[in-house]
Amino acid sequence: xITDDKIDVSSRRRILTIVIIVVFAILFLRLYHxxxxxxxxxxxxxxxxxxxxxxxxxxxxxxxxxxDRLVVDVGPAYTVTVTPASFDTNNLVxxxxxxxxxxxxxxxxxxxxxTYSRFSPVRILRDIDFKTLSKLxxxxxxxxxxxxEVESKRLYPFGKCASHLLGxxxxxxxxxxxxxxxxxxxxxxxxxxxxxxxxxxxxxxxxGYEFISVNSKGQLLGSLEEGRRDIPSKEGFDLIxxxxxxxxxxxxxxxxxxxxxxxxxxxxxxxxxxxxxxxDFDPAIFSGVTSSKVWTKLNTDxxxxxxxxxxxxxxPPGSTFKMLIAAAAxxxxxxxxxxxxxxxxxxxxxxxxxxxxxxxxxxxxxxAIQKSCDxxxxxxxxxxxxxxxxxxxxxxxxSKSTGIDIGEETSGLIPSAEYYDRVYGKDKWTQGNLxxxxxxxxxxxxxxxxxxxYVAVFANNGTLIQPxxxxxxxNKRTNRIDIIDHKEIPVWLNYDVMxxxxxxxxxxxEEPGGTGSLARISGIVSAGKTGTAQNPHGADHAxxxxxxxxxxxxxxxxxxxxxxxxxxxxxxxxAGMVMEKYLFGExxxxxxxxxxxVIPRDTILLKTTEKGEH
Amino acid sequence: xxxxxxxxFDFRVLFICLALVIVGLICIYSATFxxxxxxxxxxxxxxxxxxFIIMIVISFVPLRTLQRLSITFYFIAIxxxxxxxxxxxxxxxxxxxxxxxxxxxxxxxxxxxxTVLAFASYISKTDVSISKIKxxxxxxxxxxVPMFLILAQPDLGTTIVFFVVLLPLLYWAGxxxxxxxxxxxxxxxxxxALLGTTYFIIAVAIGAVLLYIxxxxxxxxxxxxxxxxxxxxxxxxxxxxxxxYQQKRISAFLNPExxxxxxxxxxxxxxxxxxxxxxxxxxxxxxxxxxxxxIPEQWTDFIFCVTGEEFGTLGASIVLGLFAALLLHALxxxxxxxxxxxxxxxxxxxxxxxxxxxxxxxxxxxxMPVVGLPLPFxxxxxxxxxxxxxxxxxxxxFYANRKEY
Lengths: 614, 405
Known about the structure:
The complex is a heterodimer of chains A (614) and B (405).
Chain A (H helix, E strand, L loop, with lengths): L8 H29 L1 H10 L2 E6 L6 E2 L5 E13 L9 H8 L3 H12 L7 E7 L1 H10 L6 E10 L7 H4 L2 E3 L2 H7 L8 E3 L2 H5 L1 H4 L4 E7 L5 E4 L14 E4 L3 H11 L4 E6 L6 E7 L13 H9 L8 H4 L9 H10 L8 E4 L2 E4 L2 E4 L5 E4 H7 L2 H22 L21 H8 L7 H4 L12 H12 L3 E2 L5 E6 L4 E4 L5 E2 L4 H16 L16 E7 L7 E8 L6 E7 L5 H18 L30
Parallel strand pairs in A: 2-10
Antiparallel strand pairs in A: 1-8, 2-3, 3-4, 3-5, 6-7, 8-9, 10-18, 11-12, 11-23, 13-16, 14-15, 17-20, 18-19, 21-22, 22-23
Chain B lengths: L1 H7 L2 H26 L2 H21 L3 H25 L10 E3 L2 E3 L1 H17 L9 H19 L4 H18 L3 H19 L1 H17 L4 H24 L2 H11 L10 H11 L12 H4 L11 H34 L3 H25 L17 H19 L5
Antiparallel strand pairs in B: 1-2
Helix pairs in contact in B: 2-3, 2-14, 2-16, 3-16, 4-5, 4-6, 5-6, 5-7, 5-15, 5-16, 6-7, 7-15, 8-9, 8-10, 9-10, 12-14, 14-15, 15-16
């Protein structure tokens, strides 16, 4: 016991006990006062308590093409919502009959929303038509917890045009929701492919909040304090694209028969002028409700319509690759302008014979490009070697992604010594593996986008441009337009090297004996190169790369047609017409019906041991 | 073995703490259910586990060691408070969160404990007597230093806790009624000063009467009266220099209904939440006020609303009952301890718990101003929970060592 200071512990304890009891008595009394005596008052208040926050969806940003044509629009869509806490499940069948959907679908959506919040509305059906909407309106008073909201949906004035490039929005997945934190709510639409995905943060805008008074059944009583506390939503930013939608639509019309891709690019700044991937899909099917049936159909279609062939395919480039081999050899001093070989129609390496299509006789590098002489390049690649091939491949932007702003793309492949070691085993491969690389066959894999960028290097005299589909972003609130800067990388090619190669590909189109004459544009000198990529699984893939006009190029192009046959007959005319349309604004020539017999086959590999990358 | 435990292990504190922590976890789960999938719940559960281990460890530390170390801990706490005043990051307008190795910790939570221990340690020295003016001032100084450091953060709630805890401590230490009154009356006048001039004059008058009744000699009465006036007037000045949000909180307490969607909003919503709970409550996860998140960050200072709304009078009474039992038990430990240090420390701990409980529940029920004080064991917050577990561990320790002189 405490003895100091004559403290009477028990009396002090008694007094403190009394203090504690009194204080707690007050607390208990207050508790009973609130919960038992004033229960009816507070119970009513809590039922009426009514300040509810309604999220106002912002209007998603628009997209305009380079000529300021509206290409991705926004329109209203009515979405039915259910607040799980106030919804009477007995009404499920009634609601589903009004909406004409399976009750199980609605039930599933409500249950999914309930796990996030039972008091915030779940979107159960998007983009209902006016008839359904009016039926719902009439019966809304019978359906507590059911409501509808106006959302925006995508409209496409150009229809299916550029669907892969523009991309689409989908409802946010649970996984994305977890990753992104508080920006999104269940049921929000987010860009999930193409520009919609890569510019999501600019397009989406900012959500607004409206404070409204509702009664306990969730019926609207009016806005709180005349909306003084509301936070308006902020519109998303607009994208101004580099695409010319007139050209895009024209290019698509030429490609409808094919599976393949076309990339037209401005060789001066890297802006994509047109990007076609066929077969395609209608992006509008994603803007409202996407039924799982449609989704499954698109996903399982053997032609893979959702797959962007312009950026994601990996085919050997065929003879279109010969400029790169020539550039490496010339730049490294391995050959010069005077170097000639004599083509006798085939090339023997060890016990293997690599054939050429024609006997070209004595050719120099310019002629070899012009005539697409395989024997010349079979020999040349052996001099250049794998390491230099890889070095120059990277310089021209191969075997790495281009960094284009539309999302997914392949990096492609140029085989290296390490690659062969890994695939065939160390010392299990020979220089023979190299030979077919010389004519762009074998394991080389490139995308049409990479090819367009590559041919643009010869168009702009040595700059590797940054391909991009968006030129600038417009903030509608401040009317400020931000132009996106793109870095360009010099390829560092000697002037003479560039001159020789350019001359070679000019002759491909313009001189007799060139393989690209069907790409010729009347009145304008252009350059290009055909390619026919051999395909062990079926017919050859047709390639054409080129640019025009020759002296001050405004357009560079790559066309790839799967299993279409020869580049010179199938791909070259399409490329020629697209460039012509772009340069003149109209097509001057009559559409040329390809007559394959007259056109020389540019490259065919008769004997192969390697399997190409497909 | 069992009989030893029965004799020396404080099952009562253990039971009360566990019960309160469990109720708190349930309420935190409910309050954060819709907001972040109850992420706060998982973090709090982790802290509860850590706190529990610390509590058990502390209950077994030899009493002498505790007493010896208390002065050291006190100075460490002071140093920490000084550091955060200088470099501390500002959270919610207050500097008390200490970003230490990525852990948010609130040193003022621990400063309360170390101050009480240091006070008890000092007073229990054989040559120290509270009735000697020098010793009284030193013991007041032990409180004053951390109190002003915390007030400077500014953390009004914790400062009030220091002030209130001082009263039972001095009382238990054997201070005369005059000293207690001298400390009490400045609080009265300060409070009056906040309410307005009329209330201030009334408070001064009551103070003067009280001082006269418990007078010891004219000189000390004059000094105490002077201090009272000075504090009352300086509160007026302080109020002017306060942050706007603090001024708003005070005026919101004075008239919460005036601006139901402004600063008084929390109190109104909190009363509605508790009031609408009724006797049995709305049920777990069924409280509309809680689930609709009418009260911002309900899982911290307004956790009692969740209890009141979802578990009704029944649940809230159990919680209040557990708190009352905890305080009465602390008082019992203080009374039966033969050691003066542990006896005083137990009273201090009772005071800390009691102040938090009364201010927090009182605030939730609209009886007290909105002061940012967590409800012991229930409110979300790692450092607060661990600090409470430490105090519970100390009580267990004092109980086990009650027969030691």
